[in-house]
């Protein structure tokens, strides 16, 4: 029976879920909730526990401890077929000997759908939804990778699941198709409003498709928030460097005034930042500046903060150019600029000004990733 105290707007709740493999703690008392109609992404590096979490939700693994509920009902011992889940695997797992129609209809037939007419109606609806009308008679080998992915999505959705599980579904596609399918999956989600749990290591996929992102590390969730919030306020240096690129630095708090800190780097460079509650005068302060927040200029400019720097490397990407720079006390900085039509690119060894404001400085709770967030470029132009 459902828990009468359960929130009816919650599809999934994990409470204190843990898992150990060969004496290694993979999930450490994990708490997670997914609301009705929400698209939530588990984002993190290999080994962080995201796939283990998804497999526990799917019923493919049993947790060692904790509690899981689906739609307010205890689901820890519920077999996978009774969980009302749809799943798209990394390999898509289409049946090669079946047509597109039969692949999509497979779940309906396993459920004992009442009639062939009902099956055909639902399959046709799915083909329209994933924009593959007329493809029902083809076999997977006759489809492109993107089309196969759409068939896998249709098969997972045709049974009307309460929760859709996506296990790195775009990893086998090329870059252009990945971008296309990100938009398609988001469109389909917004059309059906089906609760969705995506597992990925791609920050782009997470930012594009999610309502909320849960960044995982070492079996725990380090930060969970909407994409824009997690990008602007990552809180930890790990989240800051995993969700987007960042220049993470350490300094000392020289002064505090009305919630604003004056931070000085070891060699004298200084800046202002919104102070974190735990910062104290004379104490260490970690902060980050996103590469796109630096304005790279050829000479002196008027700005709240201006640092002198030298270009050490660059890479031209068409619509953007990335500069590696060295400033006094900050020898490894990265800046992202938009090439101007008819404008020239800065050369290696050239002196430039880096302009930014207090609003561009992201205060962090730790400096663990200081200096590790930026790496010398291997390509030059």
UniProtKB/TrEMBL annotation:
Keyword Ribonucleoprotein (UniProt): no
A single GO BP: quaternary ammonium group transport
Any GO MF annotation of the entry: transmembrane transporter activity
Family matches, as InterPro entries: AAA+_ATPase (IPR003593), ABC_SmlMolc_Importer (IPR050093), ABC_transporter-like_ATP-bd (IPR003439), ABC_transporter-like_CS (IPR017871), Mo/tungstate-bd_C_term_dom (IPR008995), P-loop_NTPase (IPR027417), Transp-assoc_OB_typ2 (IPR013611)
Cellular component, GO annotation: ATP-binding cassette (ABC) transporter complex
SUPFAM superfamilies: MOP-like, P-loop containing nucleoside triphosphate hydrolases
Annotated keywords: ATP-binding, Nucleotide-binding, Transport
All copies of domain ABC transporter, residue ranges: 12-243
SMART domains (UniProt xref): AAA (SM00382)
PANTHER family: SPERMIDINE/PUTRESCINE IMPORT ATP-BINDING PROTEIN POTA, SPERMIDINE_PUTRESCINE IMPORT ATP-BINDING PROTEIN POTA
Family, as annotated: Belongs to the ABC transporter superfamily.
Name this protein carries in UniProt: ABC transporter ATP-binding protein
């Amino acid at each position: 029976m459902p828990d009468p105290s359960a929130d009816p707007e919650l599809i999934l709740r994990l409470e204190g879920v843990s898992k150990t493999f060969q004496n290694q703690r993979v999930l450490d008392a994990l708490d997670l909730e997914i609301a009705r109609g929400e698209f939530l992404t588990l984002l993190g590096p290999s080994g962080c526990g995201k796939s283990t979490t998804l497999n526990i939700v799917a019923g493919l693994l049993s947790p060692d401890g904790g509690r899981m509920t689906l739609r307010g009902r205890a689901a820890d011992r519920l077999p996978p077929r009774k969980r009302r889940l749809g799943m798209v695997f990394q390999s898509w797992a289409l049946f090669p000997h079946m047509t597109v129609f039969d692949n999509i209809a497979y779940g309906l037939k396993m459920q004992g759908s009442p009639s062939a007419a009902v099956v055909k109606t639902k399959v046709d609806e799915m083909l329209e939804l994933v924009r593959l009308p007329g493809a029902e008679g083809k076999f997977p080998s006759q489809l492109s990778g993107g089309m196969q992915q759409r068939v896998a999505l249709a098969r997972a959705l045709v049974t009307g699941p309460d929760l859709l599980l996506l296990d790195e579904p775009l990893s086998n596609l090329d870059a252009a198709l990945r971008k296309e399918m990100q938009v398609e999956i988001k469109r389909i989600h917004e059309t059906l409003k089906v609760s969705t749990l995506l597992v990925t290591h791609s920050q782009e996929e997470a930012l594009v498709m999610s309502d909320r992102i849960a960044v995982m590390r070492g079996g725990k969730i380090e930060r969970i928030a909407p994409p824009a919030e997690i990008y602007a306020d990552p809180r930890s240096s790990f989240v800051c460097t995993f969700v987007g690129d960042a220049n993470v630095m350490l300094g000392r708090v020289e002064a505090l005034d009305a919630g604003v800190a004056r931070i000085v780097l070891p060699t004298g460079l200084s800046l202002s930042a919104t102070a974190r509650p735990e910062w104290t005068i004379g104490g260490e302060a970690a902060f980050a500046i996103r590469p796109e927040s630096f304005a790279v200029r050829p000479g002196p400019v008027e700005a709240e903060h201006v640092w002198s720097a030298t270009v050490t490397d660059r890479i031209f990407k068409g619509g953007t150019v990335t500069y590696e720079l060295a400033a006094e006390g900050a020898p490894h900085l990265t800046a992202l600029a938009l090439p101007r039509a008819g404008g020239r690119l800065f050369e290696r060894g050239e002196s430039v000004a880096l302009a930014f404001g207090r609003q561009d400085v992201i205060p962090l709770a730790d400096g663990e990733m200081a200096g590790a967030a930026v790496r010398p470029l291997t390509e030059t132009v």
